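Final report, Chapter 2: Outcomes

The project's central promise was a pipeline that accepts a single protein chain and returns its three-dimensional structure in a standardized token representation, suitable for archiving and comparison. That pipeline is now operational. To close this chapter, we reproduce one record exactly as it appears in the project archive, with the input sequence first and the structure output second.
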Amino acid sequence: MRKLFFYFLLFIFLSSHSYATHQRAAEITYKHISDLTFEFTITMYTRTSSPADDTRDFMPISWGDGTGSEIQRIVFEPIPDVNDITYNLYKGTHTFPAPGNYTISVEDPNRNNGVNNIPNSVNVPMYIETEIVINPFLGYNNSVQLLNPPIDQGCVGKPFIHNAGAYDVDGDSLSYRLVICKGAGGYDIPGYTYPLASDTFAINSITGDLLWQTPILQGEYNVAFVIDEWRLGYKIGSVRRDMQINVVACDHDPPDIYTIDDTCVVAGDFLQFDVTAIDPDGTNVTLTAFGGAFEQAENPAYIDPDPAVGNDTVTTTFNWPTTCKHVRLEPYSTVFKASDKGLPVNLVNFKTVFIQVIAPAPENLQAGALGIGINLEWEKSICENAIGYKIYRRSGESGWEPDYCESGVPEYSGFKLIDQIDDINITSF
């Protein structure tokens, strides 16, 4: 009788143990709906083979205002051509009681077992959070959208790179920083360590490239980073991605990507350039692209072919018929991704090109004497979303010739701002 009882306890322990082993990666993003109402999306990547993977039809979420909800899963599907990873999508709306700063969070038991840099990972919850600042003086905010899923894998002794493909529809400035993975209660996981590297493990604060140069030991690792949004010098929100990297043994190298560096284009012009990916081992390579330029409702950018697929070397052409609606202060981050067909895992590389869309200059400036002054006249801006004009003056010739992609009137040119007209229909001064 005692022997049967022991077997029963052992079965219950193993069943509950495997039931919880499923969380690989996650993030929370949001979109502004109206007033104080926002739509939130929880994106999770889980272990397909875990029994717990099928059971999470609803996900508890804390809104940061003392309330919480359970929001429904609307997408649940294994990712093709990726081993043992399922894509989960939950959506729900929430109305906040007043302007303020809120931290929205999700805690779900548990991470999958065997994560190298998280002690006893099978008993550590997945915890993610997103910050939102509702400030009427700064305007309503949409979070960044992460266009590249965290499903890439690495090899021992080979550089690993990941880029989330963050796109901010509001045109806010973005910065990136590494953080420690969090667990129960939103606290840093005790004993957590960054992955061991032969050289460096860091994130580029500007491009968002997470570079591991290079993995030393095989296994699964979880890392996290935060994307902060800035508007007029103030932090207006942030998104945390907690992701898993599977490192195996292999002897091939990731592809190389060759294209232009950062560039600019005057709104209304057609921007076009080639991008080439070369696999040093001669295997098939796939070249894709993502970023804000491709997300535009009017005249989005596109690459041709999309994707570019071939043996050893492939080339695609980036095309963007820009319009005035694309003009904004911050450049568009355009990310090109090359993936090989090496075994046992596909290795990837990224190249980020920042594209600044500049408003066209006023045309046909005419200057005529008017008493002891000068009367200026010019044509109305072709961009209906322009808000006005700035007028500068200097004594004598300047000899200043703007550099390529240089906009505005810098101080070193010697010109001084004398007035600003906040109406594009006023075309004289």
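Archive annotation: Confidence is low (pLDDT under 50) at residues 1-20.
This record, like all others produced under the grant, will remain available to the consortium after the project formally closes.
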